[in-house]
Known about the structure:
Distance between the termini: 101 Å
Mean pLDDT: 78
Order of helices and strands: HHHHHHHHEEHHHHEEEEHEEHEEHEHE
Strand content: 5-15%
Strand order of the largest sheet: 6-5-4-3-7
Radius of gyration: 39 Å
Number of domains: 4
Shape: elongated
Number of strands: 12
Low-confidence stretches: 1-8, 438-456
Largest sheet: 5 strands, antiparallel
Number of helices: 16
Helix content: 55-70%
Amino acid sequence: MGGCVDFSLQQGLGSIGDLLKSVAHDLLSVWLAVQIAEIGLAAAIAAMATVVAQRRIKLVEVTMGWPAPARLFGRLLLAHIGAPVFVLVVTVFHAAMLSLTWPSRSYLLGVAESLATAWFVIAMLAGLIRNQFVYRLVAISAWTIAALSILGLLQPAMATLDSFAVVFGGLRISPLLVIKTAVLLILALWAAAAAGDFLDRRVRSASELTPSIQVLIVKVLRLLLITFAILITLSTVGIDLSALAFFSGAVGVGLGFGLQKIVSNLVSGIILLADKSIKPGDVISVGEHFGRVGNMGARYTSVDTRDGREYLIPNEDFITQRVANWTYSSDLVRLEVKFCTTYDSDPHAAIEAAVQTALSVERVIRKPAPQCMLAAFGTTAIEYELWFWIKDPAAGIANVKSDVLLALWDRLGERGIVIPKPGPARVIYELAHKDEPAPAQNASDAPTSRQTPFAG
């Protein structure tokens, strides 16, 4: 194997050396200066043509009404209009040189013509790629290969890169193999991502599928596409999958020791999507977090809260912890508020006023109807609980409770029903004896004014 490596390396270096000798010989020729001057003139003409074309041509007006592919092609052509102008001018110069002198004295013009043509074609085709990183990768890689091929260095360069190789677990790894695998893998993953986005839009447009089933289908399809992209890439570059047995064993050990949480979250996410216990749009509370389920990812689920924060909760927590799903089987949610009245206020009137107050709030629904119960006879006031139902918990819980309490404040004041307020002596006593039963209400602590809802 060592002999083969030395031969390939010597062959590649010999080809590169021959090219350098040829270039060094041309540098001593006056015709090289002539060709460089012609190339510079062609570049100047192309730059002027680009400026004039981009100033004179109103692309939006010209392409109005064209199909989307035609508009994209027109935009790419205008952006690279200098390349065909440069090729045209260099071609004219090259033809003139061929008619006046030997072909070897116009070699540089032919190379510049071929390189510019390759760059224009590659730029037009790669411009169809929206992802900027993939676009640059494809353009640079394709033009590098084209340039090496035009200069006659492609095979020597590949032989040189392939000559430095190591054998690892039955797999021969060389710089050429690494470069080919990296480039093809990036392109394959980009194609898989683009196909996944297309299928995602198609699946989400199917109204007969529930949100959780849509997310599950999309994630399975994306996983399959990525798997196929990796397998196709490995097969294309000639890697025997059986040679990866060593690496698969190492991955298995890694899963056993360090990746348990990642795998657990992945499996938990699939379970959540399959059993539909949590789906996008549900209002849930898990631990200290309360909000609406947003995106359900492979590792985490996002919960949007009313304060603008978005919590990323691991999927495993939804399996191992107690989760309250407020909208699991129904959007109806029952809320309650507590209030008190003084003993000289009519409890029947207070209950009736509380029910009417709840019905006056916009978000409170009529069926089931609100209910108000007398909860207890406290030491200083009569205690009530007002129950009411809403069907849009995602719009907030605290805000609708606040609306009900404010409306209750106004209505009780209109009815002359007093909300008790303990006097200073009562507050001090309750703080000092908060663990003991409070004594009976004294006459001095009784409300003396009914002009405001509070008395004290």
